Amino acid sequence: MLEGTIPDSIGNLSSLLFLSLDKNNLSGPMPPSFGSLLSLKILQIQFNNLTGTIPPTLANISSLNQLLLRENNLHGEIPHFAELPSLSIVDCTSNYLFGTIPISLGRLSSLEYLVLGMNNLTGDIPSSLYNLSSLKALALPYNQLEGTLPSDFGNALPNLQVLLMYYNQLRGRIPASLSNASELNNIELSFNAFHGTIPPSLGALQSLKRLELFGNLLEARKPSDWSFITALTNCTSLQVLDLGDNLLQGMMLKSIVNLSTSLNILALYNIQISGIIPTEIKNFINLTYLDVSVNDLRGTIPVEISHLWQLQYLNLSSNMLSGEIPPTLGNLTRMDKLHLGSNEFEGAIPTTLSNMLVLELLNLSNNRLSGSIPSEVLSLSSLASFLDLSYNLLNGSLPLEVGNLINIGELDLSNNRLSGETPDTIGKCAILEILHLENNLFQGSIPSSISNLRGLQELDLSKNFYSGQIPAFLDELPDLQYLNLSFNNFEGRVPMKGVFKNASKVLLIGNPKLCGGIPELHLPKCTSDAFAAKHHSDYKLKVILIPICGAILCLIIIMCLLGVHHLIKNSRRKPLSRFSLKNRHMKVSYDELFRATNGFSSDNLIGTESFGSVYKAAMNYENADIVAVKVLNLQQHGAFRSFMSECEALRSIRHRNLVKILTSCSSLDHCDNDFKAFVFEYMPNGSLEEWLHPNARENRPFRSLSLIQRLNIAVDVASALEYLHHGGSVPIVHCDLKPSNILLDNEMTAHVADFGLAKFLRQPPDESSEHSSTSTVGIKGSIGYVPPEYGMGCKPSRLGDVYSYGILLLEMFTGMSPIDDKFKDGLSLRGYVRAAAASPEHLMDIIDRNLHSVDNDMAYREECVRDCVVSVFDCGLSCSNESPYERCDMTKVSKELSAARETLLS
């Protein structure tokens, strides 16, 4: 890799035709002497750290054909290049260029690709660009461009194929003349301020594959304004249509039925469409994503929707749909997110929903569903985000099978008619964080198994018929922030520790037999039965008891003094704080961890992470309960912030492919230094790094991963990232994905670990917000896996994780590390695979040679294996694209890899 600055003497190479300095660590300005390279045709200096401005002297190179300066730190204005008749490609994406787009670019008669996205360009788009008949791609997203598109846009652009102007400040109408650019296949104008109607003339674009107009002010007030939908039926290649979040209204959903059956994404949310869901919906056999939420749809769910066997995301929430939920919906076995809430559905919950074996989220709330909760649905251990059945008419007892929801994070069964006792099996929902059972008919005591829910943050049992005393274990739940026990039949003394110390976090009204607690709860003082008996006893009994009580009191005082002395002596050895975030409550101190790891012995060391070391520990001292202890190196800069970031991340996540934390310890060591550690579930098969690149010095027998094992791990990690990015209300970016942070359990299931660099994207989860700093831990990552945009000051984003995943995928199937010595002088792992991808046969030559020694039957399944490998490498190359805006998201990645696995197993 080249470093330093580009010497001015490069201008002496007067016969130079091609100069490529991509993917180095070059810095400093571009020398003006470039203008002396009069024979130069291609100037390619992408993915470096160049600063300064683009030298105006480049305008002297009349032979220049391609100018590629993507992903640098260049600033200033774009020079005038009017005298470059051969210039066909200008790509300055992802720099810090500002000012307006030069009018002179419109005089470049050979220009085919103008790509200036992710800069700070302002002002109007020069009209001269709209007359470039040679132009094939105009990509200007993520700038601050203003103005309108001219009414004759497209008239002089017969070769235009790609138009990307999303995330700008454009306004006005979408011109009908756009259809005159007859080769257009991709139009993305989302998140601007376009208004008016959508022109029907777009239907003349027979090559159109993608039309994204969401997040504008587009209108439709009368039936004729919806004529564009009918016109789009001529676009037989249309795959993506997203019109959500506009001011459209009045369309009947039936009008979409003649759209292309090639559609795989249809998003028509929050645009006031009405009518019924047509039976012809079954024609969209390629549909994987359907969102028609927040509309005025009525009628029933047609059974024909179950013919969409590829559907993975279905959102019909916030409509006025009625009738029963069709049992045939269970035929959609690829479904992972099902939203049917806030409608008028009635009848029973179909037991067939249990056929959705990969379902992670189920929302049936705010309907009129009745009958009991099917035990079959509660047996879906795949449910990981939440199960919401609240505000229905469900009755009967809560089935014991609720304990099968071992991955569930949020369970809401409130506002129903459920009765009986709450089953003890609920304590098996080990990573549950939010539990709402309020406004039902539950009775009996609070089950003791709730003490196992160590990560519980919200517990609402109000408006039921629970009785007995408030159990003491509730004050020991370390993360509990909200507890509502109002309007039950609880009695006795209220605890004063834990959540009960803060009156703003506890609601107890409507329990007249409660007493005690902190003064802020305003409960009556407790009166002892023993004291009442003494009050009515005779004088003789008092004479006997008073001396005895006095002696006992003196003894208690002496013991308290001794206890205080002991506490003062030993308090600095106790853990100062604990977080029991997952499935078992382990009260650990520094001393216990010290003993369990044999004094943090090197013999117990099993790995290192970003800010600490990981040790194997026997917490029961008889090797019966083996755990992993991550000890942070607090001398390392950023370690404390890493600890806080990891605590926050681990509190917020719950997924079968994420590492499970048992507890944490924040205390002092034997030298009175700060000590911070996490205790995780032990992964007996180590890290993916150890399997891909075994250390010869460890004297282990040969072991390698088979093709299906690698594919399973790839799907596991993709599923975890999809959950982090899209599964919660606040997206989480891992920021340090690499093989050593992928751990393997007994069944070789992958678990993503090490959240020390994790970032919360607290702004709304769209791409623009992902360029705003949202966490306090600096982005570092690991060499070879860090996306190129991070090195140029871009903020962490989900697309950055996608890049790291792409590199990881290529590494898993080639067996080659991205920091291998062979990758130098401009060659990278991605470049190596991309070169081989020109032919599927060549791809088979670069797969990890250890695969042949593990999969002896690969030769007999050559065609099947080749198809699978081609799919995997295509996915890896797509994820690791240098431009973040050309990468796919993890939802799509997860689906593609699952399909590749099906191909291999078929």
Automatic annotation (TrEMBL):
Pfam families: LRR_1, LRR_8, PK_Tyr_Ser-Thr
Keywords of the record: ATP-binding, Cell membrane, Glycoprotein, Kinase, Leucine-rich repeat, Membrane, Nucleotide-binding, Phosphoprotein, Receptor, Repeat, Serine/threonine-protein kinase, Signal, Transferase, Transmembrane, Transmembrane helix
Example of a GO cellular component annotation carried by this entry: endoplasmic reticulum membrane
Chief subcellular location: membrane
Stretches assigned to the Protein kinase domain: 600-906
Reaction equation(s) it catalyzes: L-threonyl-[protein] + ATP = O-phospho-L-threonyl-[protein] + ADP + H(+); L-seryl-[protein] + ATP = O-phospho-L-seryl-[protein] + ADP + H(+)
Locations listed in the record: Cell membrane; Endoplasmic reticulum membrane
Molecular-function GO term, any one: ATP binding
Membrane topology per record: Single-pass membrane protein
Highest rank taxon of the organism: Eukaryota
Ranges annotated as spanning the membrane: 544-568
InterPro entries, sorted: Kinase-like_dom_sf (IPR011009), Leu-rich_rpt (IPR001611), Leu-rich_rpt_typical-subtyp (IPR003591), LRR_dom_sf (IPR032675), Prot_kinase_dom (IPR000719), Ser-Thr/Tyr_kinase_cat_dom (IPR001245), Ser/Thr_kinase_AS (IPR008271)
E.C. numbers: 2.7.11.1
Keyword Phosphoprotein on entry: yes
The protein's role, per its UniProt record: The processed protein kinase Xa21 chain released by protein cleavage after X.oryzae pv. oryzae protein Ax21 detection translocates into the nucleus where it can bind and regulate WRKY62, a transcription factor. Confers resistance to the bacterial pathogen X.oryzae pv. oryzae (Xoo). Receptor kinase that detects X.oryzae pv. oryzae protein Ax21 to promote innate immunity. Following X.oryzae pv. oryzae protein Ax21 detection, undergoes cleavage, releasing the processed protein kinase Xa21 chain.
Protein name per the record: Receptor kinase-like protein Xa21
Species of the source: Ananas comosus
Gene: LOC109710811
